Amino acid sequence: MNLTLPEILYSSSNVAESKKISQLQKKGMIRKILPKAYTSNFEESDEAIIKKHIFPLIARHYPEALVSHRTGFEFSLSPLSNIYLTSKQNRLIKWPGVTLKFAKGPAKLENDRPLFEGLCVSSLERSFLENLSSSRISGGESRTVSEEVIEEKLLIQLQSGGEKRLNELRDKAKEVSKVLGMHKEFEKLNQKIGAILSTKPIDILRSPIAMAQAFGEPYDPNRVNLFHKLAASLRINAFEQRPDKASTADEFRNFAFFECYFSNYIEGTTFEVEEAIEIIYQNKVIPNRNGDSHDIMGTFEICSNKFEMSKIASDPAEFVELLKSRHATIMQGRPDKEPGLFKEKPNRAGSTFFVLPNMVSGTLKAGFEALATIPTPLGRAIYMMFLISEVHPFNDGNGRIARVMMNAELVHAGEQRILIPTVYRDDYIGALRQLTRRSLPDAFMRMLNRIHGYSHWLNPSNFDNLLQQIKSSNALQEPDQGKLDWG
Description:
Elements: E1 8-10, H1 15-26, E2 31-34, E3 37-39, H2 46-52, H3 54-61, E4 66-67, H4 69-74, E5 82-87, E6 91-95, E7 98-104, E8 113-116, E9 119-121, H5 124-131, H6 147-180, H7 183-196, H8 208-214, H9 221-235, H10 249-265, H11 273-282, H12 290-303, H13 306-309, H14 316-330, E10 348-349, E11 352-353, H15 360-368, H16 377-391, H17 398-412, H18 425-438, H19 442-457, H20 463-472
Parallel strand pairs: 4-9, 5-7
Antiparallel strand pairs: 1-3, 2-3, 4-5, 6-7, 8-9, 10-11
Helix pairs in contact: 5-6, 6-7, 6-8, 9-16, 10-12, 14-15, 14-17, 15-16, 16-17, 18-19
């Protein structure tokens, strides 16, 4: 590729420009890829270059056309590499790797959106109407998207602008439908919007996500898809079974102490072990740290109770109630954080936004459905931990409650509980981010399987001996001070 030339050059009616293009072509510095287009890129195929610059190329060749129907919805090539346009006549133009499908139809309207130079794309309201029009499959593909896609696009409008945005869209679509003569399409759109807003019958809806919204339980489809991906990976992993070593109440409580200690430490509630002993076993509140002290007390109250930790939910509604109940106990010392109540404002970690407040309950319930498909206790524990962490349903205490719910799955099955020591924090957070940001579950599964093995290595029969094991394995060190090391 000649770096001094643009990748795409166009023929021109200007004599000087036309002569320049001709000279560049004769020198072998550019080559022709379309009737009015040349490229200086000799490394990639015509197909790759055309796809990369598809809309500017259309603008140069067919500026009078309107990008419409499914292309106006998706702003990209269709699965079969088609671009759908509206113009004065029906025609089909084949370019390398791309087919332009023109359909005769109404001209551009004043509110259609500029896309590139003179090329326009259908306005949002026109695009909804176009995609609700009747369309036969031609060449293995329809000009329009499915009704499920249309409904999910309507949900995006609802999520970004509320009911007001949908009502404005409906009003504009009504006016456009009069100009275009698309009265049937508008009525269908009107019915779908009404169903989503629960003001009209929902039998017109096709998308499970839209139906959930209509029933008052909207969920985050991207998160649910990620949960299903994790569940699929967990189903094919035969994790080693590691029975719980804590056979007595004292042994159960010994392990619970460190489970609770580390779970709070990783969230920034940091105490020396000796201070945590005073808080938990002597009910001592550390001066000027009332909230932090009660965080540890509340977490230990749950973690040390084998009867409570043996409970698991049998259905989505029971799951939500159990989650709220345990959170209320953990966070009882922080009434300002609304213990046991789902968040009412969005929350995030860095650049990662968690599930929106109005979708928390629905996303948790939709995610819970896949839990029963995972055959191993550790697999279910891993899934449960990520489900809650990824939704982040509360104002605070999300990490603690996620790990409590994870370990409850293990206690119920008679399996070893997991603790996440301080030295392992970066491994834990890094693997969690891999799954959250890149949809890669393997590192997350390996990380928790490894720490499950470490947790099983610990012997809870004597508190002092357990503490010594934890110290000798570097578990109390900061991540930049050492690595977890055990037998």
